[in-house]
UniProtKB/TrEMBL annotation:
Gene Ontology CC annotation, any one: cytosol
Principal location class: cytoplasm
Protein name: Glycerol-3-phosphate dehydrogenase [NAD(P)+]
Assigned EC number: 1.1.1.94
Entry binding sites for substrate: K97, R244, N245
Organism: Marivita cryptomonadis
Keyword set includes Cytoplasm: yes
Amino acid sequence: MGAGAFGTALAIALAKTGQPVTLWCRTSEQARNLDKVRCNSAYLPDAVFPDSLKVAQDLSAIMGGKALLIAVPLQHMRAAISILPQKTETPWVACCKGIELSTGLGPTGVLNDASPNVTTAILTGPSFAADIAIGRPTALTLACKDATSGARLQAALTTPTLRLYRTTDTVGAELGGALKNVMAIACGAVIGAGLGDSARAATMTRGFAEMQRIGRALGARTDTLAGLSGLGDLALTCTSDLSRNYRLGVSLGRGDAFDPKITVEGAATAQAMSKIARQKEIDTPITNIVARLVEGSTTVKDAIDSLMTRPLKEE
Ligand SMILES: NC(=O)C1=CN([C@@H]2O[C@H](COP(=O)(O)OP(=O)(O)OC[C@H]3O[C@@H](n4cnc5c(N)ncnc54)[C@H](O)[C@@H]3O)[C@@H](O)[C@H]2O)C=CC1
Ligand SMILES: O=C(CO)COP(=O)(O)O
C-alpha cells in the first residue's frame, strides 16, 4: 500500500521472487498509468516492473495475503489505513520512519492505536528505494512484538537481495529509524554550512549518543539501536547525498529553499521528539536544534554556537 519510492521498490523486489505481489495505488489513474508503462517513472525511473507484479486501486486486491506492507509517510499513515477493513488475519507491516506529531507514537504504535486487533510489525533499516528496486544487496530489520509472527514475516519478506534480521524490540527499531533522520538533517546542515567532515563526524557520534539516551529513557534495547535500524541507518543517511533528510539539512546550511513536496520524515520527527523529551526530561540538544532549524527559529551559526558552548562533561 503506497506507490511512492519505498512501496514500489519493495513490491518490485518481492515480486521478483515469483510470489504474488500487488502494488496498491491511491488513484485508479495512477494504477492504470503504472500498469501501462510497467515502471514508476516519477520515483524509480530505472526499475522495470517484473511481469508478475500486479498493480491495483481496488482494496480487495491487497487483503488476505501473507502480509500488507504499508509504505506511506508516517504523518499520513493514519489517514491511509482508515480505509482498510479492521477484521483481518493478515499482519500489517509499517514501512515508514518517524514519530506522529499529534500523538508521539511510532509506526506500529499508530497501527495498533487505529486497529487494535491486527498483528503489526515494522520493516526498517539502511536502504535507499533505488538500491532495493534494482536488486542491490540490502539488509533490514523486521521488528514484531510477537516472535512467531516476526519469524513468519522474516521468512516471507526475505529475498535473494533483501536480507532481513528480526527482533521483538519494536520500540528500539522505531526509535532508531525515526531519530537517524533527525541526525541526518543536522549532519546535512553542518556540511551545507561548510563546517567540514570533522564536524559531521562529531555530530553523527553525539547524535548517536543522543539516540541511545532517548532509547534508554523510552525502553529501547541498546543493541537494537546499535544495529541496522539505528547505527546502520544513521551511517547511511548522514553521509549520502541520496538522502532527502540529509539534503534538507544541506539546504538549511546553505540557506537555500527546499521543495516542500519532498518526503522528509525527520522534520516532523524532530518536533515530536523535542516535545516528548521536554515532557520526560531527556537531554536532546541536537534534536531540539533540528526542530528549531526546520521551523526557522534559529540559524545554523547560532545552533553550532549553542552546541559548542554547552557545559563540558564526560563522554
Ligand atoms: N525512499 C526511500 O529510499 C525509503 C523510504 N523509507 C520510508 O518510507 C516511507 C515512505 O517514503 P517514500 O516511499 O520514500 O515516500 P514517497 O514520497 O516516495 O511516496 C509516498 C507515497 O505515499 C502515498 N500517500 C501519501 N498519503 C497517503 C494517503 N493518505 N493514503 C494513501 N497513500 C498516501 C503517496 O501518494 C506516495 O505514493 C517514509 O517513512 C520513508 O522514511 C524507508 C526506507 C527507504
Ligand atoms: O530511510 C532512508 C534510508 O534508509 C531514506 O532516507 P531519506 O528519507 O532521507 O531519503
